[in-house]
Design a protein that fits this description.
It is a single chain. The protein is an alpha/beta fold. It has two domains: about 1-215, TIM Barrel; about 240-340, no CATH class. The protein has 14 helices and eight strands. Helix 10 (about 240-255) packs antiparallel against helix 14. The protein is globular, with a radius of gyration of 19 Å.
Length: about 350
């Protein structure tokens, strides 16, 4: 048996934030989720992140959260070496966050992702007290999630450092602040052991260049090989190749960012026959315009970089329009990059 958290303590590379597939009855599609987990691990995912924002966690019942974590654990822990499962367990109510953390531990998660309390906008002292209480409530490693565009207030570097210095189980940060200079500041405070994961696909490469360890990614659901190749190229010092792959990734990321990733990533996966595009309210499926852009980018990506995608692209009647769309920016940019890369 492995000790909890041992294999997450050196987290790096790209870890997908997995969407939650639903069937025609609005229940979790267990087979689709198992298949997605298995394909991600085969593509080299360094962790599976479940029941977080991309997974529509606000719409999930406690039983559904438990089911998702258990499915991911069953798939990931069958691998050698074991791949960790990181469960979303955040809330703007400390008592609720503690309950979610304990439930994730009971379901078999290896770590939790705990978001800064949102909407009620606590002070830095409030952030510290919140995460301190969570850390005392469970034996699981904790990755802090800082995303001020959604929570309304950022966790200060000093607060992150104080928490990590007090609790060895606070092992890292999912940093979606957009500040790519932050890794240098935090490494000077906490050293290299503290895991610094970018929470924004568009900023992943510059974040790595400043000392980050990897990315918790929505895009890697669709193009895990592209993300992994970019990361490995950077680590090997092949900076030009890493930048070229990052340029391709940027076009895909931009297509997803037009609307919430919980719906755009799921729509892209539906094109690859991985799951239904169904989402739960208040999320809705992407607009026709956004769908057309995603369809065009995914088709061209699969034409030029099929080995990098989670599954083959199988055009249907709707996809006859994509060559015309591919002449329109931003897809034209991807075609030009593809020509340059050969």
């Amino acid at each position: 048996m492995f000790s909890a958290g041992r294999h997450v303590s050196r987290l790096s590379g790209f870890a997908p934030a997995l969407p939650t597939p639903f069937d025609s009855n609005d229940n979790i599609d267990r087979a689709a989720f198992e298949r997605l987990c298995d394909r991600q691990l085969a593509a080299g995912a360094t962790a599976l992140v479940v029941a977080e924002t991309t997974g529509e966690t606000p719409t999930l019942s406690p039983g559904e959260r438990h089911e998702l974590i258990r499915i991911a654990v069953e798939v990931a822990h069958a691998r050698v070496p074991v791949v960790p499962v990181i469960a979303g367990a955040g809330s703007n109510c400390t008592e609720h966050a503690i309950a979610l953390t304990r439930a994730a531990e009971q379901a078999g998660a290896d770590a939790v992702l705990s978001v800064a309390p949102y909407y009620n906008k606590p002070t830095q002292a409030g952030f510290y007290a919140h995460f301190d209480a969570i850390a005392q409530s469970s034996g699981l490693p904790i990755i802090l999630h800082d995303i001020p565009s959604r929570t309304g207030r950022a966790i200060a570097d000093e607060t992150v450092a104080q928490l990590a210095q007090r609790h060895a189980k606070i092992i890292g940060l999912d940093d979606a602040t957009g500040d790519v200079t932050r890794p240098g500041r935090l490494r000077s405070l906490l050293g290299d052991a503290f895991r610094l994961m970018c929470g924004d696909d568009a900023a992943a490469l510059p974040y790595l260049a400043q000392g980050g360890h990897g990315c918790i990614s929505g895009m890697s659901n669709v193009a895990p090989g592209l993300c992994r190749s970019m990361y490995l190229s950077f680590r090997r010092g092949e900076i030009g190749q890493a930048q070229r792959l990052a340029d391709v990734a940027a076009v895909l990321s931009a297509a997803f960012a037009r609307e919430p990733e919980s719906s755009t990533v799921k729509f892209a996966l539906s094109l690859l026959k991985m799951m239904s595009p169904r989402v739960r309210l208040p999320m809705v499926e992407p607009s026709d315009e956004t769908k057309a852009g995603i369809r065009a980018v995914v088709a061209l990506l699969c034409e030029r970089y099929s080995r990098h995608t989670i599954a083959p692209f199988e055009p249907d009647g709707h996809d006859r329009a994509w060559p015309h769309l591919a002449a329109v920016s931003p897809v034209a940019s991807l075609r030009a990059l593809a020509e340059r890369l050969g």
